[in-house]
UniProtKB/TrEMBL annotation:
PANTHER family: CHEMOTAXIS PROTEIN, CHEMOTAXIS PROTEIN METHYLTRANSFERASE. Coiled coil: none annotated. This is Protein-glutamate O-methyltransferase CheR. Residues 16-292 form the CheR-type methyltransferase domain. It comes from Pendulispora albinea.
Length: 292
């Protein structure tokens, strides 16, 4: 009898967990649908586990017990939506992140870029701009910046405004300097910024040829033809269907034999993009578009 009771209790817990998970998924889907209809931001094809964690983080920060309560607040309070956007945006970045990647850009991609009279680069999902400034420094040192137009885009208008300021924590400069040196930097990194109080303001001439703009990879289309596209550590947050859509966007936005750079944990295997690109620097996830 005791075993039967324990088994029944265990079955009840299992059924309740399944019910709670089903309800939670419905809440997530309704919240994302509401955001799309009211604000026009489409997160419906983001990886479920990742988006759920970010939604709960905002719900708890708002002092809410359910995602349904978060939906009510988001739809009626644009300020809450602004705060949620910061949670949903990918903001894990640093200057010369993965130094060997930037070293490969310098040594293996730049020689091809030199062959073009004018170079267009798209940094998709640029977040707070650390990698944009890193790329600008690299292009200046290689003598290509003057004939380059660099487009830096992100879904979040708030982080775009911050990126334009070019001010980063002074406490990070030691780490960034080491990254810069490992990435093949040719000068003293401190030449590129001025220390003020707790911040490091980077030279404004690094941004002369940079265009910061809001762009949504989920809903927006191509806006130019590029020789190099960087979209690092963004697509890991997308489900497969959205990954395929974004890869098609990148294919259509690249020149013949243009370069696509992804993050270290990202892959083209088992995606629609597999036949569109060939590995160029495999270990650094740098690909080249092939002619179809």
């Amino acid at each position: 009898m005791m075993r039967d009771a324990a088994a029944a209790s265990g079955l009840f817990r299992t059924l309740k967990e399944e019910h709670d998970n089903d309800v939670e998924r419905v809440e997530v889907e309704l919240l994302l649908e509401g955001i799309y209809r009211v604000y026009g931001f489409d997160f419906r094809s983001y990886a479920y586990a990742s988006i759920k964690r970010r939604l709960w983080r905002r719900a708890q920060a708002e002092g809410l017990a359910t995602l349904s309560a978060l939906q009510d607040r988001v739809l009626h309070d644009p300020g809450c939506m602004d705060r949620l956007m910061l949670d949903l945006s990918i903001q894990v970045t640093s200057m010369f992140r993965d130094p060997t990647f930037f070293l490969s850009l310098r040594r293996k991609v730049v020689p091809s870029l030199r062959t073009y009279p004018f170079i267009r680069v798209w940094h998709a999902g640029c977040s707070t701009g650390e990698e944009v400034y890193s790329l600008a420094v690299l292009l200046k040192e290689e003598g290509l910046y003057a004939r380059t137009r660099l487009y830096a885009t992100d879904i979040n208008e708030t982080v775009i405004r911050g990126a334009k300021e070019g001010i980063f924590p002074l406490s990070k400069m030691q780490e960034y300097t080491l990254n810069y040196q490992r990435a093949g930097g040719l000068r003293s990194f401190s030449e590129y910024y001025t220390a003020r109080y707790d911040g490091a303001r980077f030279d404004t001439n690094l941004m002369e040829n940079v265009v910061f703009s809001q762009h949504n990879l989920v809903t927006d289309g191509s806006f130019s033809e590029f020789h190099l596209i960087l979209c690092r550590n963004v697509m890991i947050y997308f489900d497969r269907s959205l990954q395929n859509r974004v890869l098609k966007l990148f294919r259509d936005s690249l020149t013949k034999f243009g370069f696509l750079a992804l993050g270290r944990k990202e892959t083209l295997r088992h995606t629609d993009g597999e036949p569109w690109f060939v590995p160029f620097v495999s270990e650094e996830k740098i690909f080249r578009r092939v002619e179809q």
